[in-house]
Amino acid sequence: MSDNNTSARNLSAPTAAVIVAAGQGTRAGGGMPKQFRPVGGIPLLQRTARCLADHPEIDNLMVVVGEGQETLANEALIGIEKRMRIVIGGADRQASVRAGLEALSHIEPAPGIVLIHDAARPFVPHAVIDSVIAKAHEVGGAIPVLPITDALLATTDDHSLAPGPDRAGAMRAQTPQGFRFTAILEAHRAALSEPLGAAQDDTAIAARAGLPVHPVPGAEENFKLTAPGDFARAEAYLASLRETRVGFGYDVHRFTDGDTIKLCGVDIPHTRALAGHSDADVGLHAATDAILGAIGAGDIGAHFPPSDAKWKGADSTVFLNHAAALVGARGGEIIHLDITLVCERPKIGPHRDAMRRRVAACLGLSLGRVSIKATTTERLGFTGRGEGIAAEAVATLSVAREDG
Length: 404
Ligand code: MG
Hints:
Number of helices: 13
Radius of gyration: 29 Å
Structural class: alpha/beta
Bound molecules: magnesium ion
Oligomer: single chain
Helix content: 25-40%
């Protein structure tokens, strides 16, 4: 975003979002209110809050939770840094939204636009939020909708089916619904004095108050998690956003005079040492190249040139951690690392567990995700003649899917 846009936004009233997360229901299974259930290992509420918090035009978040859910909410919202508050909701959705709006009415400066969003829609795309904010600025109210492609039917008194409303005039409503803040706050206050039940939805409350609400395109991935099957759909959707990558690395270092070699981060007493600009840890060099290979990030020499005196004698865990950090920076994770050391001597077996523990600790992986193997070449070739040690490594990663 350009500086011009940033200053223009700062000059206007802030945009706020109310996240309605006050449900007590466990209909979706999992033994706890669904907004705190993990999806892809992260609480549903955290995913939803992050979607909104990460949007550059949203300045304040108001999260409405049920009585007694404050601790769960605080835990679920760890790391959400945008100006955020948690408030306690009411007996139903309408009362909870009103509680969120009333809490927002005390912030300075007052919001210009407010988005009201269901916690159970964790995958709302920024493009939908963009459209809702823009349309709410333009006409006063906006709701994301999708067309209905299936025919609609209605049940009859004798439990058979009759043709339902014409689907051409019907739409599926999503959230966030966006409104001018003062207008929707007044509409909710006005609805307080009328019988509850008829107008549960904010668009209905806005319409009853005569506020214009215009449709903007919703998104299929902005689906609502309600039933247990919806959580399985959410897991499948998350999996569809990722792909598995495999990278390969190979390295050789020759023996030289000395009495210790470093292999996979572990010092091993030996009758020789390995020659190299760094600590010559051939295993970690192969592993680093395997990780870099899986994300197409070149090779270890490109990141740590041997010509650079800075890396003389360097601990090769620095290289490994750098490659892992590059993976983390693009939202990826290392699933598994398999290293094979090729030499006649030293014997690797006695040091294998220490090497696994060292590499696993370095990368923050469980032991089961790190494999160290060793082989000889039956006294054939340079490793067979004891001239040096070779290492091969295969890294398996999960990264965000790259299209095209
Ligand atoms: Mg090397």
